[in-house]
Amino acid sequence: MAFERRTIISACVYALLSIVAAPLVCAAEDPAVKAAVLHLQRQWENIKFNVPEGTKQTDQMNALGEEADSVSARYPDQVEVLIWNGVITSERASMAGPISALTLATRARDTLEKAYKLNPAALDAGATVSLAVLYYRVPGFPIAFGDKAKARKLLEQAISIAPNGLDALYFYGDFLHGEGDDAKAKEIFRRALALPAHPQRADWDHNRRLVIEELLAKIKDKS
After folding, report:
1. What is the rounded average pLDDT for all residues in the chain?
2. Domain 9-222, what fold?
3. Number of H helices, E strands in the chain
4. pLDDT confidence of 12, banded at 50, 70, 90?
5. Closest CA to 13 of 56, 69, 58, 55
6. Phi, psi angles (nearest 5°) of residue 5
7. Closest Cα partner for 87 from 119, 147, 117, 45?
8. CA separation, residue 101 to residues 46, 127, 159, 192 (Å)
9. Mean pLDDT (whole number) for 66-90
10. Distance between CA atoms of 151 and 136, rounded to whole angstroms?
11. Which string of DSSP letters, residue by residue, matches 89-110?
């Protein structure tokens, strides 16, 4: 799932982290769908974690977003495709200027809501987590659609659905930390770090754990 805090509306990314939120594996049975989803996942991970921030990264993510839109057009009711399209669109929003970012964030929300309605448990609650991240990192009314209450409800659902999901735990802990509940955030972060490393997603797993460790260090410094 994919989201980084950067600017006003651009504060809506980490994806998915990628998110926003980043789902773990493709459960699709159709080989063509599975291949398309794995391609989107791997490209997102490479661009997000291996391409330096700047114009090149933004251009590559936008190109991947156009590809994800095309895949979604071919498979409009495949939940895994919708989740990854939402994650990538959210990532694009984080890299855009304020006006474009709001448009992209709204598109990501609508795509992820469709995926959520199809299957909130798919890809380790990928749509559930990624929607939550949008709701707690995008500004609220009257600027945009952010809603902390919706975010909390979705994150609690995600933890219930995917209690061993690294993204579900990371983003729930991040939300709690942002809300000032550092004691609970610390507990959630420690649960996340206790999970075994994902053998097929080394970049994503490594970078998630680094961010969690940084947040734990901040909490420790405050106490």
Report:
1. 89
2. 1.25.40
3. 9, 1
4. very low
5. 58
6. -80, 120
7. 45
8. 22, 19, 28, 30
9. 97
10. 6
11. HHHHHHHS-HHHHHHHHHHHHH
Rounded-to-integer distance, Cα 143 and Cα 192, Å: 33
Q: Show Cβ contacts of residue 182 under 8 Å, excluding neighbours closer than 6 positions.
A: 176, 219, 222, 223
Q: How far apart are CA 134 and CA 11, in angstroms?
A: 9
Q: Which residues have C-beta within 8 Å of that of residue 45, sequence separation ≥ 6?
A: 22, 201, 203, 204
CB of 126 closer than 8 Å to CB of 21: yes
Residues in the chain: 223
CA 174 – CA 149 distance, rounded (Å): 15
d(CA 122, CA 92) in angstroms, rounded, equals 22
Question: How many C-beta atoms surround the C-beta of residue 124 within 10 A?
Answer: 24
Q: What is the pTM of this model?
A: 0.88
Percent of the chain with pLDDT over 70: 87
| The token pair that represents 73 in the structure block | 């057009």
CA 28 – CA 205 distance, rounded (Å): 22
User: Residue 136: is its pLDDT beyond 90?
Assistant: yes
pLDDT of the residue at 221: 83
In sequence order, the 6+-apart residues with CB closer than 8 A to the CB of 155 are 128, 129, 132, 136, 168, 171, 172, 175
Distance in angstroms between the alpha carbons of the first and the last residue of the chain: 30
Distance, in Å, from the CA atom of 42 to the CA atom of 40, rounded to the nearest integer, reads 6
Helix, strand or coil for residue 15?
A: strand
